[in-house]
Amino acid sequence: DAKTTQPTSMDCAEGRAANLPCNHSTISGNEYVYWYRQIHSQGPQYIIHGLKNNETNEMASLIITEDRKSSTLILPHATLRDTAVYYCIVRRFGNEKLTFGTGTRLTIIP
Amino acid sequence: DTEVTQTPKHLVMGMTNKKSLKCEQHMGHRAMYWYKQKAKKPPELMFVYSYEKLSINESVPSRFSPECPNSSLLNLHLHALQPEDSALYLCASSFTLAGGRGADTQYFGPGTRLTVL
Question: I need a surface site. Which of A35, A95, A103, B83 has the fewest CB within 10 A?
Fold first, then answer.
């Protein structure tokens, strides 16, 4: 699976949109982009995933660039409960494994 | 219902003890996973079960013994652990192993925090 690069940490003001970038420049055509988050001492929580089209669900939006070499997770109105480590994972179709990187620690500031 | 439950939440054991971790899901998922997460590190895959059969063992030491007695239940039996095995043990499940269209999306339980003395 392709390697991902994420900023180590980010801050965002409460009520604003949080935009979390992820670089996956070596991604191949059969690899999906997944986002999970992990609130302190809890299990990872699935957020969203996509292949090449932008995706939106009740939690977030995923914007994937046209060349698929990077993506951005958008939390539209961040709350204090969104403070967590956010993992961007590239996973090949058919691969049973989910390989976590070091993620981005997002802190929502009141 | 997208819930994976794990018991116990916390476990303290000595190096000579035998204990078990339990994971349960009632979402009709046929793939189940064990992950280990050390402090300040990302989760790492240990085992994968598909249709109650062991599919992947990531070279985990034999003092960890997984068991999948039925499609809803996954156990991790622990014996003769070392203090460095202290970690958060996470269970996850997915509808299939690798079905695409989200069928292989993994859902995690809250974890069992294990301390080995």
Answer: B83
Residues 45-64 in B contacting A (C-alpha not used; CB under 8 Å): 45, 48, 50, 55-56
Our measurement of the distance from residue B69's CA atom to the centroid of its chain's CA atoms, rounded to an integer in Å, reads: 14
What's the Cα-to-Cα distance from A32 to each of A67, A95, B73, B91, rounded to whole Å? 13, 10, 28, 22
- Token duo for residue A13: 């003001």
Token pair for B51: 């249709």
Subunit contact A45:B108, Cβ cutoff 8 A? yes
Handedness of CA B104, B62, B25, B6 (dihedral sign): negative
Relative to beta strand A45-50, strand A31-38 is antiparallel
Query: Using CA atoms, how far apart are residues A98 and A90, in angstroms rounded to an integer?
Result: 8
Q: Is the dihedral of CA A72, A75, A76, A80 positive or negative?
A: negative
Q: Determine the Cα–Cα distance for residues A26 and A6; give it in Å rounded to an integer.
A: 14
The candidate with the shortest Cα–Cα distance to A85, out of A65, A58, A57, A107, is A107
Q: Could you tell me which chain B residue has the CA closest to the CA of A35?
A: B105
Cis peptide before B110, with omega less than 30 degrees from 0? no
Bridging pattern class, strands B18-25 and B73-79: antiparallel
pLDDT tens per residue across all 117 residues of chain B: 569 999 999 999 999 999 999 999 999 999 999 999 999 999 999 999 999 999 999 999 999 999 999 989 999 999 999 999 999 999 999 987 666 566 688 999 999 999 999
Distance CA A51, CA A46 (A): 16
